[in-house]
Structures are given as structure tokens and as C-alpha cells.
UniProtKB/TrEMBL annotation:
Keywords attached to this entry: Lipoprotein, Membrane, Palmitate, Transmembrane, Transmembrane beta strand
Name of the protein this chain belongs to: TolC family protein
SUPFAM superfamilies from the UniProt entry: Outer membrane efflux proteins (OEP) (SSF56954)
Membrane topology: Lipid-anchor
Organism: Negadavirga shengliensis
NCBIfam families xrefs: outer_NodT (TIGR01845)
Coiled-coil segments on the chain, per record: none
Keyword Transmembrane found: yes
Amino acid sequence: MLIEKHSLMRFGFIGIIALMFSCKAIEPPTMPKMEEVPEAFLEVQDSASIGDISWQEFFNDPNLVYLIEEGLENNLDLLTALERIEIAQADFRVRRGMLYPTMDGIIRYRSGDVRPNLLNGTVNGDRNVVNRLENNFIGFQSNWEIDIWGKLKNRREAAFHQFLATQMGKHLVVTSMVAEIARLYYELLGMDIELETIERNIEYQEMALELIKIQKMAGRATELAVQQFAAQLLSTKSLLYEKRQEIIETENGLNFLLGRFPQPIERAGSLMEIKLPNAMEVGVPAGMLLRRPDIQQAELELKAANYNIEAARAEFLPSLNFTPYIGLNDRSLPAAMKMPGGMTIGLLGGITAPIFARNQIRAGYDQAISANKIALYNYQQAILEGYQEVSNKMQRVENLRQVYSLRDEETAVLLNAVTTANELFRGGYASYLEVITAQSRVLEAELNKTNTRKQMFLTVVDLYRSLGGGWQ
């Protein structure tokens, strides 16, 4: 009997050793290499970035500042982002709590009917006697997984960086929302000027139509000329209603961003009266993207994915658990409270090794690797998009300045051409087609000039967003 006992202990010890050595961590995965940042972007200069300027200082229009303030309070996308932060913070608290022991209060009552051995019976031979066995426990029990391999710590770090990534996601929403409010606001100001331009040209064309009718009555013009002027006037009037509809839709879109129902938008008198923000001091490429929330978010998500891989690797190794407990344990709780012997203190320990669950753990590990690669690709893509956006916007701002200057000169020349054409037409030295052509070209030139001015503002706003401006 003694030999059998020692044999069982020896086999059990050998089984534990085999269990330990059957589990081993696998090698870290090899991640794909991404293209390095060109040296030209790593040069050090001292210029500052407009992304560091607060939006209250960057936008010099009090009406726009008021709209942005209201949007920051009521925008539904921003409120949703705040709730995502709360979810991530709760998940981090859960992961952090897994590093510490748990403490549970336990009240257990067990009662069961245990019949005697029907072959032997009871002491007095009565086979129908029923004995009641009661086993009760009241006390506390704790459970603690010892983080030998850093699995729980890596899970906590992953949750922490994911929480920080959600905060960057909130900053990204703020940056995008500030830029979108400014964009729609400047769109409205540009449409106001376009509407005024169309209305002014309608007056000119109505005067020209009346003139051609008078000349027809005098025999100096034909009905064809009258119809040509009338058709031009009708076309311009149709543009008037189209522009009014665009203004209504843009106002509604801006109100939607502000989280309110449609209402008039208070705005400046003219886009030409607002000073264009200085967008040329944008900083060097190596540092100007550091404020971009999408890049910071992608970087934090990549770090979280790295920690998740380390935690998934540790799943292949055994885990060690301790379960201490203390309480009262007896067939009768009242009796246990009266007798000192009813107090029970104990400690349970166990080693769990994933032998039959390796396929499941391997699947989780493969998922962690794929998630890590996706995070790496997203991070690289965010950097590439950032450089591309900033480079394009910087060049576009300067080129639009030149375009606007030329179109301003073009508009002035065409306005003089309209006056000259009308005078020559009255004197019989120009045809009505030349007058119509001059009027059409000046309308087109004025609209193009306004659109260029608007594009200058929109590009500066987009550059401000590309450099991570708008969140504080």
C-alpha cells in the first residue's frame, strides 16, 4: 500500500513537470517593414506651426468663433466620441483590476438526504432510516492569478493605450468639426458674394434688354437680337435661384453640425472684408505633423496591438493561481459560531497549462498578429496622408494667391470691356453679340474671382486641419 502511494506521488510529480515543459512561448512574429521617412523631412528648423495656434486666435471673425463654440458644446459626433472615451476608460479599469486579488463573500448552505448502505443497513438493522447531512460555510474567499509572464500587465498596457487612442479620436473629431464649421461658414460668405454678383448682372442685362428693344423699335436691331438678350437674362435669373438653394442647404448643413434645427446663420458682411489667416508659417515636415490626432491615434493603437501580441504569446505558458479562504464551516452554522473549532482557514493553489486548448490560443494569437499588422499599416498610411495633405495645401495656398491676383485684374478689364461694348453698341460700332459676350464673360470672371477667394480661405482652413490645429 505504501509503495502504491509513493508511486502515485512520483507519477503526479512527473506529470506536473511534463505539464510545465509541454508549454512554451512561441517566437515573436516578424512584422513587415515600412518605408522610412525621407531625410528631407527630418531637417531641423525653428519655424512654428499654425497647428499650435488656438482656433480662437486663428479665426479672426467673431461670428465664426461663436459658431465653433456652439458646435463644441452640441455636436453629436463629439458627444459620441466622449462616450467612447468612457467605454475605453472602463475597460482599462477592468484590465488594471485583473492584476490584483479578488475578494468574494460566500454563504453556502448544503443539505442532502444520504441513505445508508442497503446491504449492511444501520446499526440497528433498519434499512429505511434516512440520515440528514448538512455542510455549511460562511466567510471570504480570494482568487489571485500570479502574473508570472506579464500577460495581465500587457493586457493592462494595451487597454491603457487604447484608452489614450480614444482620447486622440476625440481630438480628431474636434479638429475635423472646427475645420468643417469654418469651411461651411466661408462657403456661405462666398455664396453671398456670388448671389450679389448675379443680382447685379441681372440689373445690367435688364438694362441691355430694354436698350435693344428700343433700338429694335428704331429699326437698328432685329427680333433675333432681342431674343438673344432675353435668353441671356433668363439664364442668369435661373442661376439666382440655384444659388439661393445652395445657400439654404449650406445653412442647414452648418446648423446640423451645431446640433440645432435650421435657422439663419449670423455671418460677416463680405468675404472680401475678412483678413486671410497667415498660413505660410507651417513649420518643418518632421515636426509639423506631431499634432495631428489621427497620427497620434494610429501610433497609440499600434502600441496597444504590440502589447496584445505579447499577452497572446504568454497564453501558451502555464498560469499559477492561489485561492485563500477563511470562514466558519460546520454541519450547523450556529454550532460553528459557538465552537472555536468551526473556524476554517485554507489556501488552494493550482497550475493551469493549455494542453488541449492550444488551437484556440493559437487562433487568438494569429488574430493578434493580424490586428498588429493592420495597426502598423494604418499608422504608416496616416503619416503618408499627412505629408501629402500638408505638401499639397502649402503649394495650393501660394498658387491661389497668384490666381486671385490675376483674376482680379481680369475682372477689372472685363468690366471696362462691358462699358466700352455698350457705348460702341449705342453708336453703331459694335454688334449686339459683342455686348452679350462681354456681359457673359464679366459674370463668369466675377464668379471665378469670388470662387478663388473662397478657395483661398478653404485651403488655409484645410491646411490648419492637416497640421492638427483646432484641438487644445
